[in-house]
């Protein structure tokens, strides 16, 4: 195994949902690195039907948190990234719309990039939950055709949150079930 | 930036859809490392509703490829991993079922782990396309309640496939849209 292999696999295994932050700000340069990671995710038929809102303004972070029952960590986060589907992007004829799969891959890339940068982040689902979507849509002034998919609070971790070992050999089947 | 940061971000940016393989086999140890990465993905409410079928048997790889119009690279792949949703796992009362978001994150982790291991892999969608799902379900003898979500051919890359730069600054909105 090369160093690269070891370091990347360790990062994947040590990624955790970080819900406790020190309160330190997150720089725009850090957010841009996270956004680049998000946009590098694979996209079905290379359609790239995503857009991103990066929020650092304290009043908006708080207002987002007020309407999202499971995302109260926004009050202490330095920033958040909202991953959105842009359904105005054309589908090829007859193709199934897989935008939410692309959005999931982008969200996971952002979480892994945060882990690598020693930031803490957590995936909080918005889609398909209309109340949560509408709260975010209104505050962030999203145009119609744009669907908020996930919200990822980002901050400097306090160190309280730890990874889980979720590997279970019985979930693997070899050649056939 | 630490070495870890640089190496992980570079791996995320250099991940590509690899469709051309040398034909060399992929070891079970490599597949296990990919499966560990897949299982380390975040899971909504930590429900972990996934299962995996790892295929190395030539005749099964070929039979899978025969029925999947966009996954002909299975004929040259050393292996594949089918990421499945196991909808028999209990939902908490009233909760929205997000298994396909978990499955997407697991698929992305597998792709990134492959990139880090200098293997080549590609995400080929099965869900929600009943014809593709049924072909895979039948060949892999999946029980009812288990839905094949994605199939990831894995092999040693020939070097032909290159990453795309998909970053577009206009897809980022700051604070509000």
Q: Name the assembly state.
A: homodimer
Rg of Cα set of chain A: 17 Å
Tally of domains of chain A: 1
Helical region count of chain A? 5
Major β-sheet of chain A, in short? Answer: 5 strands, antiparallel
Please render the helix and strand layout as text.
Two copies of one chain form a homodimer.
Chain A lengths: L2 H12 L13 H12 L10 E6 L2 H9 L12 E8 L12 H18 L3 E2 L2 E2 L4 H10 L6 E10 L16 E3 L3
Brief characterization of the structure:
2 copies of one chain form a homodimer. Helices cover 34% and strands 18% of the residues of chain A. Chain A has 5 helices and 6 strands.
Commentary on this structure:
2 copies of one chain form a homodimer. By secondary structure, chain A is α+β, with helices and mostly antiparallel strands. Chain A has a single domain (about 10-155), classed as NADH Oxidase. In chain A, about 35% of the residues lie in helices and about 20% in strands. Chain A has 5 helices and 6 strands. In chain A, strands 1, 2, 3, 4 and 5 form a 5-stranded antiparallel beta sheet that branches. In chain A, helix 2 crosses helix 4 (about 100-115). Chain A is globular. Chain A starts with a helix and ends with a strand.
Pick out its properties.
homodimer, alpha+beta, NADH Oxidase, 5-stranded antiparallel β-sheet, 5 helices, 6 strands
């Amino acid at each position: 195994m090369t160093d690269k292999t070891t370091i990347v696999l360790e990062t994947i295994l040590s990624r955790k949902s970080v819900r406790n932050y020190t309160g330190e700000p997150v720089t725009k340069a850090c957010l841009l690195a996270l956004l680049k990671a998000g946009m590098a995710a694979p996209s079905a038929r290379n359609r790239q039907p995503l857009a991103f809102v990066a929020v650092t303004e304290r009043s908006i972070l708080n207002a987002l948190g007020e309407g999202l029952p499971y995302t109260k960590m926004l009050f202490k986060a330095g920033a958040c990234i909202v991953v959105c589907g842009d359904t105005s992007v054309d589908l090829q004829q007859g193709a199934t719309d897989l935008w939410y799969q692309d959005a999931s891959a982008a969200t996971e890339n952002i979480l892994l990039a945060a882990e690598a940068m020693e930031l803490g982040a957590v995936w909080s689902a918005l889609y398909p939950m209309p109340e949560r979507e509408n709260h975010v849509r209104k505050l962030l002034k999203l145009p119609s055709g744009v669907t908020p998919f996930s919200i990822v609070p980002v901050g400097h971790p306090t160190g309280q949150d730890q990874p889980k070992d979720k590997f279970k050999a019985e979930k693997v089947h070899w050649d056939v079930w």
